[in-house]
UniProtKB/TrEMBL annotation:
Protein name: Arginine ABC transporter ATP-binding protein
SUPFAM superfamilies hit by this protein: P-loop containing nucleoside triphosphate hydrolases (SSF52540)
Domain ABC transporter, first and last residues per copy: 5-238
InterPro entries linked to this entry: AAA+_ATPase (IPR003593), ABC_ATPase_HisP-typ (IPR030679), ABC_transporter-like_ATP-bd (IPR003439), ABC_transporter-like_CS (IPR017871), MetN_ABC_transporter-like (IPR050086), P-loop_NTPase (IPR027417)
Family: Belongs to the ABC transporter superfamily.
Domain of life: Bacteria
One Pfam match: ABC_tran
Keyword vocabulary terms for this entry: ATP-binding, Nucleotide-binding, Transport
Keyword Nucleotide-binding: yes
A GO term, aspect molecular function: ATP binding
The UniProt record lists the keyword Protein biosynthesis: no
Length: 242
């Protein structure tokens, strides 16, 4: 079967610096892929090339068979992808409900009534239905991130991209957000996740992709990666974080 995400020979430079070098990666529909690697290894850059938040300068990225590039196809790619950011990036002047409803109103041309009804359902799904009328700053970090996830889901994406979704949270709130993500994994939606939560990565991933210095150094099953990697760099990374 054609992979949902297909990256071939992808390169990205910032000035003289190679942030991504010759990256090849296929992600199957429904698969959960976790990107691990030291800070600066290119994880965010890779994930951002999938929805063209970052423009790659060599190789090809395809999402659902559509090449990810500037132009009229980009909307089709963006309609298939939702992204959850480390810093939540909620709209402070909109209620929680309207943060979730806005995308479908703008992009899918739903009425506000229809979009809000759907948003309520999604807020229930992430466990914060009772927060709907509040504003983002009135919520805890964990609750705000759950709004971020509901907002991504509102677009009914085939792909969810998570870039360190719990890194900005106080430790006691990490679990509630990881639980929501675990609940979504293997529900049919395809996920590419960057996280520093190793236990979670091992539990949720179908495959672990280990990056260093802009390159994919290893792709393996989580149990193999965490117990038996033969890659020296991956071993050193695990020794440092576990
Ligand atoms: P990671 O997410 O693994 O920490 P990134 O993908 O954010 O790594 O960054 C990879 C490298 O590219 C880093 O060295 C970073 O400093 C550099 N980089 C990322 N974005 C930019 C940018 N907009 N301009 C210049 N350098 C950047
Ligand atoms: Mg990053």
């Amino acid at each position: 079967m054609e992979p949902l995400i297909r990256m071939r020979g992808v390169g990205k430079r910032f000035g003289q610096f190679d942030a991504l070098k010759n990256v090849d990666l296929d992600v199957a529909a429904g698969e959960v892929v976790v990107l691990l690697g030291p800070s600066g290894s290119g994880k965010s850059t890779l994930i951002r090339c999938i929805n063209h938040l970052e423009e790659y300068d060599s190789g090809d990225v395809f999402v659902g068979g559509i090449r990810v590039e500037r132009g009229r196809n980009l909307l089709k790619v963006r309609q298939q992808t939702g992204m959850v950011f480390q810093a939540f990036n909620l709209f402070p002047n909109l209620s929680v409900l309207d943060n979730v409803a806005l995308g479908p109103v703008r992009v899918k041309k739903l009425s506000w009534d229809a979009a809000r009804e759907k948003a309520r359902t999604l807020l229930g799904r992430v466990g914060i239905a009772e927060q709907a009328e509040k504003f983002p700053t009135q919520l805890s970090g964990g609750q705000q991130q759950r709004v971020g996830i509901a907002r991504a889901l509102a677009m009914e994406p085939r792909i969810l991209l998570f870039d360190e979704p719990t890194s900005a949270l106080d430790p006691e709130m990490v679990g509630e957000v990881l639980d929501v993500i675990k609940g979504l994994a293997h529900s049919g939606v395809t996920m590419v996740l960057v996280t520093h939560e190793m236990g979670f990565a091992r539990q949720v991933a179908d495959r672990i992709v280990f990056m260093e210095a802009g390159e994919i150094k290893e792709i393996s099953q989580p149990d193999v990666f965490f117990t038996a990697t033969t890659n020296e760099r991956a071993r050193a990374f695990l020794d440092a974080v576990l």
